[in-house]
Amino acid sequence: MPTVTSPDGTRIAYERHGDGPPLVLLHGGLTRRYWEPLVPQFAGDFTVVTPDRRGRGESDDTAPYSIEREVEDTRAVVDAVAETPVLFGHSFGGLQAIETARVASVEAVVAYEPAYLVDEYRETADLAARMQARLDAGEPAEATKLHLCEVLRDDIDDIDDIDAWLDEWPVWPAPVDHVENTIRMNRALENHPLPDSLDVDAPVLLLTGSEGPSHLRESVRAVHDALPDSRLVEFEGVGHSGPTEAPDRTVEAVRDFLATVTPARSA
């Protein structure tokens, strides 16, 4: 598997699929394998690049952790591709894509519910502390469930609901393996305010689902207001995992957007 080296020396692993202009897919709380349902649909027309975030999958890790270092990781991947890429991120990966576009040249950005915390939710956010308490009590699975209750759907309100939901979720219990990384990610997000203006030169497509958590649906609209050039698309009946819940609709929206903003390069 190819790798790049981030400025702090961390080795970031990634896969490449297909042929064409580069499309870098940035995952959220899992690994690069999150994108497997979408890769075949893009690989016919793009060189699809799927990195593992630091400390996840095949990538290495280096302390201390920060969002800035995650952005440096993405910049290292961007520098490794032959052309200026499109960045498509989900959740934390959406924030990562936008923050990277503030400091690096990209063709366009797509972000599904980027994980900025805004308004009252951010002021009272204590998810990292609550997860840490469960982990300290020797309950990594319960700590992970606290995170999932916050990010999956508005109709999952408590642990009883999520246990029933997880029985049908093929990914479970893989997220438990990343619980410590998820806690540090949440702690960093709680201390990462959304600026009044996001200085991104590239066009941005923001995606959201009508069934996602209300705080992320509010966040994506705040991000929309903070960007100089963005459009917002909402998928009816879809939650926070929109790219994998509705891959066909996601691919169609991304293709339509890129055909408009990069007509010479899109299929």
TrEMBL record:
- Quote the InterPro entries the UniProt record gives: AB_hydrolase_1, AB_hydrolase_fold, Carboxylesterase_BioH
Q: Which UniProt keywords apply?
A: Hydrolase
The AB hydrolase-1 domain sits at 23-253
**Database matches in SUPFAM superfamilies:** alpha/beta-Hydrolases
What species was this sequence derived from? Answer: Haloplanus aerogenes
User: What are the GO MF terms of this UniProt record?
Assistant: hydrolase activity
**Coiled-coil ranges (or none):** none
Can you tell which superkingdom this protein's organism belongs to? Archaea
Name recorded for this polypeptide:
Alpha/beta hydrolase
